[in-house]
Amino acid sequence: MEKRTRANQLDSTLASSVRKGLKDILTSMRTSREIWRLESSSMKFEKVVEDTAVELIRRAVIQLPKDVENALVKAFAEEESEAGKMQLKAILDNVRLAREVGAPMCQDTGLLVFFIKVGDRLASMSGLSNALIQAARRATLEVPLRPNAVHPITRKNTGDNTGLGIPYMDWDFIAGDFIEVAVLPKGAGSENMSSVGMLNPGEGLSGLKKFVVDTVITAGGRPCPPIIVGVGIGGTADGALKLGKKALLRPIDKRHPDPSIAKVETHLLEALNMTGIGPMGLGGKFTSLGVNVEYAYCHTASLPVGVNIQCWADRRAAARIHLDGKVEYLSGG
After folding, report:
1. Is 166 within 8 Å of 111 (Cβ atoms)?
2. Rounded distance, CA 90 to CA 105, Å?
3. Higher pLDDT among residues 311 and 331, named by residue
């Protein structure tokens, strides 16, 4: 009797171990399937990001945003300088031809700068950087783009517009189950004219305006005016320059929501167009098509100002990509 009881206990223990083992196997299989599903979903999303980024680059270098084209049309209608008017006509003809033939509007297709806003409901963002790098490589061949990325010392060209730190990516985090990607191709002629100043706070608004105007006067015709000027005020030295570049993403027909900053934008545009530099530096009323300002709070003992200049080809494009793969192309960049 005792032997039979012990045998029954052993059978029960064995059965329990088998059931637990089977349960663990089933749990592991479900976990593996879930991991595979998530990885598969992530890979599909990254492919959508890559494909969308290629299309954004294509749109940016071929189709000028409507707000910029409208400003060029207005400048052409109102420019009084014969040389300036001739340059504006050539620019507008170029814009039309680029759109019609589907070719980049400028031979300098720039370095690619991406601004990415990532929703907090995304499960992973580990593959997003690689998706944008792959997009740069593909766009170089498919659009095509001029290979511009070189080693700063050896000057060796990678041939595909990628390299250490390029394309440049700026990341921000927002609420939502989507990401927004904006691309801003930056040519060297305008980017080379960028500047940062660490002003004495006592110089105030008048010192700030003088710094921006002096930067544009020093640039002259080199950044291919009429230019768009992005101004970053506050933060740190590098932060001010980044704010200036971010400012270029905003359509030039939309003023800053802060009335005091909007007033600075208007006054700076008026001052820049009084310099007489004019289209392509040949003289005229239109040196700048727009001035956009962004700001951040700064140290009480400093007043950083970053100026980032964009040529008349203010190339930009943006899209919102949802987790389900739906893509919305955003107007105005």
Report:
1. yes
2. 12
3. 311
